[in-house]
Write the structure tokens for this entry.
Amino acid sequence: MEAEVYRPSLKQYGGLPEIGYPFHDRDILVTSCGRICMHRKKINISTVLAGQRLGIKEVEDGIWLTSFMHYDLGYIDLEQKTLQPIDNPFGARLSPMP
């Protein structure tokens, strides 16, 4: 006897809703190779976010907070052309040792 488990959903997937960043200076598109271009500099982000918009906000001269949806990813240093990640918001929470 053959059992069938999979059933296609009756709902059609429409993708992510349009993402806005009202508390950021602007939004920026991640290229298909996982980069963003700021002030004629290419900064590697991740191919996972290719095609998505990120919010960026200058917090100090040349230092930009970078966010995706409601999550702050890290800080871009334009001088070094790098993204310094913030701790993983989805990571395990460890209690301090007594």
The CA atoms of residues 58 and 64 lie 4 Å apart. The chain has a mean pLDDT of 88. Residues 26-85 form one domain.
